Amino acid sequence: MEGTTQNTWPESYYSEKDPGLRRILLEEEIQQHPGVLENELRQKLWEIRYVSRDKKSTGQQVDNYIGGWMEMLYLSRNNGGIFGFRYAAKELRKTIKKMGFSVAEEYGEAGREILYREIYHLCSFYYHLCATDKGYGTKLMGIMSMKDEDITMKIAKEVLQNAYRLPMNTGLVQEMEVFTKAATQAFYDYFPREKDKLDSQVEKLRK
Known about the structure:
Elements: H1 2-6, H2 11-15, H3 19-32, H4 37-49, E1 50-52, E2 61-63, H5 64-77, H6 82-98, H7 101-105, H8 108-132, E3 138-139, E4 144-145, H9 148-170, H10 177-190, H11 195-206
Antiparallel strand pairs: 1-2, 3-4
Helix pairs in contact: 3-4, 4-8, 5-6, 5-9, 6-9, 8-10, 9-10, 9-11
Pfam family, one: DUF6553
InterPro entries: DUF6553
């Protein structure tokens, strides 16, 4: 059953991590079913998300969505005071524009759903990188390794910062609604036994 699910469209597209293979899957689907607006948006978001690292056509690509996550994390940690909040709001608007939020809005509800799935893909990929990267799970200048539960809590705190605290502090809760839902659900699905780590943090924030 699992193999069948992953081979169907668009599940195959959203289960693939490699940008090049994702593009091949998308182009094949467009050739087989031309004129589908959802795939048109998927193609636009792919081009927004993945850009060449240099001009030498090496095939190496930068994931702008990972970059967007890191920009949000920086803003969420450096937005104290009213002027800091205003600056963070201005910069956050730039970030989500670079990530194609406004492009997706042009497609209405279907666009919001596709944006949700792309952000969910980003978050699942990012959580996987964090959970498996030895550098992420170290402390005391890289000398000691963190326990798995501590790594999960560290990721949960990042989700809290980007998907909850930053939207609240900048007054962009509505603009970030799709991001918040996708980041949260991706955390629940990737860490099904650790939902309370995020929920407890969110509950404290809202009190």
